[in-house]
Design brief:
Number of strands: 13
Structural class: mainly beta
Order of helices and strands: EEEEHEEEEEEEEEH
Helix content: under 10%
CATH architecture of the domain at 67-143: Roll
Length: 225
């Protein structure tokens, strides 16, 4: 199993997703969202090689939030995936570029845990924030793991879809039978490339809890531990 995230075409934000494939339909379930927001993609719905390639490009391995002791990894020019909280309280994750690092002295909690107070200036690469610069803290920043490994349900769906596009009747390359990689039983329902959230649904939140932040002792240069 490979943890995956999906960039939704409506807002270009990244969402953690669970994937299931029953041999005919790929189902996406959004982490932290109700089942009613699941999306289904039947084999054959994507009718061209270009559509398949664009769909594949919206998936990648899930980004991992940095912890306080890892702040030295965030450097000028680093590409990151970061969270941003809008005025309405909605939190979304977008790709961004680190354009400035404001180092501050690290503190230690009573339990001896390191607390990072550094500030980062991000230039957003996508979504409604594209081109804008905002401040962020360590708890807002995630790194995306390298590599093109994908979850088996998505792999099977793409293989069958490519064969369907080629006119092979849905038979997998090499004559394999499609694997049933469904891991959860779902109710019927689909919304191809569309997802509307009701007002009372909580937005996607940070992946992990992070330490409390302090605002003392700015030091220009490397963070002090």
């Amino acid at each position: 199993m490979v943890d995956m995230e999906y960039q939704h075409p409506d807002d270009n934000a990244w969402y953690d997703v669970g994937l299931a494939f029953d041999g005919e339909t790929l189902r996406l379930s959004y982490a932290g969202f109700p089942e009613e927001q699941d999306e289904t993609f039947p084999v054959g719905k994507l009718e061209t090689a270009e559509e398949l390639e664009a769909f594949r490009g919206r998936f990648r391995r899930s980004s991992v939030q940095l912890q306080d002791h890892e702040c030295s990894k965030i450097v000028h020019g680093k590409a990151v995936c970061a969270s941003y909280q809008f005025e309405n309280g909605e939190v979304k994750f977008y790709d961004a570029l680190v354009v400035e690092v404001l180092n501050e002295e690290h503190e230690c909690s009573g339990a001896g845990e390191e607390i990072c107070s550094c500030t980062y200036v991000l230039k957003w690469q996508e979504g409604s924030l594209q081109g804008k610069r905002t401040f962020a803290r360590i708890g807002d920043v995630c790194f995306t793991p390298p590599g093109k490994e994908i979850d088996p349900p998505l792999e099977d769906f793409l293989r069958m879809s490519r064969d369907r596009v080629k006119g092979d009747g849905g038979v997998l390359v090499g004559g394999e039978e499609p694997r049933n990689t469904t891991t959860t039983i779902y109710k019927d329902g689909s919304s191809y490339f569309k997802r509307m959230l009701p007002p009372n649904v909580e937005p996607r939140r940070r992946k992990f809890l992070c330490a409390c932040k302090t605002n003392e002792g700015r030091i220009h240069g490397h963070c002090k531990k």
